[in-house]
Amino acid sequence: MKTGGKKKAVTASATGGFRADLPLASRPMPRAWAVFKTAWGWMGLAASPRGIAAIVLPHPTKCAALTVLSRLEARRKGASENPSRLTSHVSRVTESRLRRARAQMVSFLAGRRQTLAFPVDFTGGTPFQTRVWRTIRAVPYGQVRSYKWVATRVGGARYARAVGLALGANPVPLIVPCHRVIAADGSLGGFSGGLPIKRRLLALEGTLPRTGRSG
Predict the structure, then answer these.
(1) Which of 52, 158, 189, 196 has a 20 to 30 A CA-CA distance from 21?
(2) What's the pLDDT tens digit per position in 114-147?
(3) pLDDT for position 181
(4) What is the distance between the alpha carbons of residues 108 and 116, in angstroms, rounded to a whole number?
(5) Dihedral of CA 134/135/139/144: which sign?
(6) How far apart are CA 197 and CA 20, in angstroms?
(7) DSSP string of the chain, one letter each residue
(8) In what order do the strands lie in the sheet with 41-48?
(9) How far is it, in rounded angstroms, from Cα 19 to Cα 202?
């Protein structure tokens, strides 16, 4: 299949299996996937007409990232939009959306970029989770906040535990920087991507010395 010289990427539709032989622009379905390599390892992305809907943090192999992304997408199938209504729109926007997000994340992990700016699809979350994710998205690069700080902004300090659960369900880490949320005593707290990645992200942003290292 001719691709006009464009670099291919591992992609898949929301309702089909993985395909490694098609360029991003060829995906006809409402959600498209991509797996790509960064300085930290292999990452994954899923995009919908609304924006980036899932981000898989770095894994040591392409197969590992692909497996995690496949699992995330399988859970979301029921929430995807009507394919017949959105196919034409996705065919126009998916390639640029995925490529832009991918390029930004590669630069971010390489230390060449401090902000991530691309549309995000939060439709898979509950109203409370979405409030938490939007609040955390506003935490600037190089700064940290506590679970209590987030809780007071989404309903009250008593919601600190619920905030932690919402963070664990965050489908788009990095763009929603849950690694910047730590415990009130300065310890790292939890992280869905694992504490080693959380430490590394905080070190990249220069905030690790201001937090507890043991978690």
Answers:
(1) 52
(2) 999 999 999 889 999 999 999 999 999 999 999 9
(3) 96
(4) 8
(5) negative
(6) 28
(7) ---TTPPP-BEEBSSS-EESSS-GGG--SS-EEEEEEETTEEEEEEEETTEEEEEEEEESSHHHHHHHHHHHHHHHGGGS--HHHHHHHHHHHHHHHHHHHHHHHHHHHTTS-S-----B--TTS-HHHHHHHHHHHTSPTT--EEHHHHHHHHT-GGGHHHHHHHHHT-SSBTTB-GGGEE-TTS-----TT-HHHHHHHHHHTT-GGGS-S--
(8) 32-38, 41-48, 51-59
(9) 35
Asked if 48 contacts 30 with a C-beta cutoff of 8 angstroms, the reply is: yes
Look-up of token digits 């196919």 = 87
For the chain, the C-alpha Rg in angstroms (whole number) is 17
Tokens of 186: 């300065």
Q: Which long-range contacts (CB under 8 A, 24 or more apart) does 115-120 make?
A: 115/141, 116/174, 116/175, 118/51, 118/52, 118/175, 119/50, 119/51, 119/52, 120/50, 120/51, 120/52, 120/53, 120/172, 120/175, 120/176
Active site residue 178: yes
User: Residues 178, 181, 188, 204: which is the catalytic one?
Assistant: 178
- pLDDT one-digit tens code per residue, 33-92: 889 999 999 999 998 888 999 999 999 999 999 999 988 877 765 444 443 333 344 445
Structure tokens at 25: 């622009």
Two tokens, residue 115: 């902000």
